[in-house]
Amino acid sequence: MNVPYFRKKRTDQGAAFPFPLGLSLLFVSFLALCIFSFAVLSLLTARNGYRISQKTAEHQSAYYAASNKAEDRIAELNAQWREAKGTGKQPPEKVSFQVAIDSGSVLSVALEGKDTTEEGGTAGYQITEWKEISTGEWKPETTIPVMTPGVS
Protein backbone atom coordinates (compact mmCIF):
# COMPACT_ATOMS: atom_id res chain seq x y z
CA MET A 1 0.00 0.00 0.00
CA ASN A 2 1.30 3.43 -0.98
CA VAL A 3 0.70 5.80 2.03
CA PRO A 4 1.71 9.48 1.83
CA TYR A 5 4.76 10.48 3.89
CA PHE A 6 2.87 12.60 6.43
CA ARG A 7 0.36 9.79 7.11
CA LYS A 8 2.94 7.17 7.92
CA LYS A 9 3.36 6.09 11.47
CA ARG A 10 6.13 7.67 13.46
CA THR A 11 7.97 4.39 13.68
CA ASP A 12 8.04 4.22 9.87
CA GLN A 13 9.41 7.77 9.56
CA GLY A 14 12.33 7.28 11.86
CA ALA A 15 13.59 10.22 13.96
CA ALA A 16 11.61 12.98 12.25
CA PHE A 17 9.48 15.89 13.46
CA PRO A 18 6.19 14.87 15.09
CA PHE A 19 4.36 17.23 12.67
CA PRO A 20 5.16 18.26 9.13
CA LEU A 21 7.33 21.39 8.99
CA GLY A 22 7.26 22.71 5.48
CA LEU A 23 9.39 25.24 3.72
CA SER A 24 6.44 27.63 3.47
CA LEU A 25 6.08 27.74 7.28
CA LEU A 26 9.76 28.58 7.66
CA PHE A 27 9.49 31.30 5.00
CA VAL A 28 6.40 32.87 6.62
CA SER A 29 8.06 32.80 10.05
CA PHE A 30 11.20 34.46 8.68
CA LEU A 31 9.11 37.07 6.85
CA ALA A 32 7.12 37.88 10.01
CA LEU A 33 10.36 38.27 12.00
CA CYS A 34 11.78 40.63 9.34
CA ILE A 35 8.63 42.75 9.23
CA PHE A 36 8.58 43.02 13.03
CA SER A 37 12.26 44.02 13.11
CA PHE A 38 11.77 46.73 10.49
CA ALA A 39 8.69 48.01 12.31
CA VAL A 40 10.63 48.38 15.57
CA LEU A 41 13.53 50.10 13.81
CA SER A 42 11.13 52.47 12.04
CA LEU A 43 9.43 53.32 15.32
CA LEU A 44 12.73 54.06 17.05
CA THR A 45 13.96 56.19 14.16
CA ALA A 46 10.73 58.19 14.08
CA ARG A 47 10.79 58.73 17.84
CA ASN A 48 14.42 59.90 17.75
CA GLY A 49 13.68 62.25 14.84
CA TYR A 50 10.73 63.70 16.71
CA ARG A 51 12.85 64.27 19.82
CA ILE A 52 15.55 66.05 17.82
CA SER A 53 13.01 68.21 15.98
CA GLN A 54 11.42 69.21 19.30
CA LYS A 55 14.82 70.28 20.68
CA THR A 56 15.55 72.25 17.50
CA ALA A 57 12.14 73.97 17.60
CA GLU A 58 12.63 74.98 21.24
CA HIS A 59 16.09 76.38 20.51
CA GLN A 60 14.90 78.28 17.43
CA SER A 61 12.01 79.82 19.40
CA ALA A 62 14.41 80.91 22.13
CA TYR A 63 16.83 82.32 19.53
CA TYR A 64 14.10 84.36 17.83
CA ALA A 65 12.94 85.73 21.18
CA ALA A 66 16.52 86.75 22.02
CA SER A 67 16.90 88.28 18.56
CA ASN A 68 13.78 90.39 19.13
CA LYS A 69 15.16 91.59 22.48
CA ALA A 70 18.47 92.49 20.83
CA GLU A 71 16.70 94.47 18.10
CA ASP A 72 14.69 96.34 20.73
CA ARG A 73 17.93 97.17 22.56
CA ILE A 74 19.49 98.41 19.30
CA ALA A 75 16.47 100.65 18.69
CA GLU A 76 16.89 102.11 22.21
CA LEU A 77 20.61 102.70 21.63
CA ASN A 78 19.92 104.39 18.28
CA ALA A 79 17.40 106.71 19.97
CA GLN A 80 19.99 107.53 22.65
CA TRP A 81 22.58 108.14 19.89
CA ARG A 82 20.35 110.64 18.09
CA GLU A 83 19.42 112.32 21.38
CA ALA A 84 23.09 112.66 22.38
CA LYS A 85 24.09 113.98 18.93
CA GLY A 86 21.22 116.49 19.07
CA THR A 87 22.51 117.94 22.35
CA GLY A 88 26.11 118.06 21.14
CA LYS A 89 27.33 115.26 23.39
CA GLN A 90 29.60 112.52 22.07
CA PRO A 91 27.85 109.12 22.26
CA PRO A 92 29.97 105.98 22.74
CA GLU A 93 31.64 104.87 19.50
CA LYS A 94 31.34 101.16 20.24
CA VAL A 95 28.72 99.33 22.22
CA SER A 96 28.39 95.60 22.82
CA PHE A 97 25.92 93.55 24.80
CA GLN A 98 24.68 90.01 25.18
CA VAL A 99 21.18 88.58 25.32
CA ALA A 100 20.58 85.16 26.89
CA ILE A 101 19.08 82.63 24.48
CA ASP A 102 18.80 79.61 26.76
CA SER A 103 20.81 78.04 29.57
CA GLY A 104 23.72 77.17 27.26
CA SER A 105 24.08 80.06 24.81
CA VAL A 106 23.91 83.83 24.42
CA LEU A 107 23.50 86.19 21.49
CA SER A 108 26.46 88.56 21.31
CA VAL A 109 25.90 91.89 19.53
CA ALA A 110 28.53 94.56 18.83
CA LEU A 111 27.66 97.98 17.43
CA GLU A 112 29.75 100.81 16.03
CA GLY A 113 28.57 104.40 15.76
CA LYS A 114 28.06 105.75 12.23
CA ASP A 115 26.92 109.23 11.21
CA THR A 116 26.17 109.22 7.51
CA THR A 117 23.57 111.98 7.44
CA GLU A 118 25.79 114.05 5.14
CA GLU A 119 25.76 111.22 2.59
CA GLY A 120 21.99 110.76 2.71
CA GLY A 121 22.17 107.97 5.29
CA THR A 122 21.05 107.81 8.88
CA ALA A 123 22.77 108.46 12.17
CA GLY A 124 23.04 105.67 14.69
CA TYR A 125 24.76 102.41 15.35
CA GLN A 126 25.74 99.88 12.73
CA ILE A 127 25.83 96.19 13.64
CA THR A 128 29.37 94.83 13.39
CA GLU A 129 28.84 91.52 15.20
CA TRP A 130 25.81 89.27 15.60
CA LYS A 131 26.65 85.78 16.74
CA GLU A 132 25.54 83.00 19.01
CA ILE A 133 28.08 82.00 21.66
CA SER A 134 27.93 78.78 23.65
CA THR A 135 28.33 79.46 27.37
CA GLY A 136 27.69 76.02 28.78
CA GLU A 137 29.89 72.97 28.85
CA TRP A 138 29.12 70.44 26.15
CA LYS A 139 27.73 67.21 27.59
CA PRO A 140 27.42 64.44 25.02
CA GLU A 141 24.66 61.89 25.29
CA THR A 142 26.43 58.74 26.37
CA THR A 143 23.46 56.41 26.09
CA ILE A 144 20.89 55.83 23.43
CA PRO A 145 17.40 55.27 24.91
CA VAL A 146 16.35 52.43 22.64
CA MET A 147 13.52 50.78 24.54
CA THR A 148 13.45 52.73 27.79
CA PRO A 149 9.89 53.33 29.02
CA GLY A 150 9.08 56.95 29.76
CA VAL A 151 11.99 58.37 27.77
CA SER A 152 10.99 60.42 24.78
What does this structure look like?
This protein has 2 helices and 3 strands, in the order H-H-E-E-E. It is an alpha+beta fold. The longest helix has 64 residues, at 23-86. 5% of the residues are buried.
List keywords for this structure.
152 residues; 45% helix
Strand arrangement, largest sheet? 1-2-3
**DSSP strand tally:** 3
Low-confidence stretches: none
Mean pLDDT: 82
Number of helices: 2
- Label the overall shape: rod-shaped
Structural class: alpha+beta
Distance between the termini: 66 Å
Strand content bin: 15-25%
Helix content: 40-55%
Order of helices and strands: HHEEE
**Alpha carbon gyration radius:** 35 Å
Main sheet summary? 3 strands, antiparallel
What is the multimeric organization of the chains shown? Answer: single chain
Task: Explain the layout of strands and helices.
Elements: H1 10-13, H2 23-86, E1 94-102, E2 105-115, E3 123-134
Antiparallel strand pairs: 1-2, 2-3
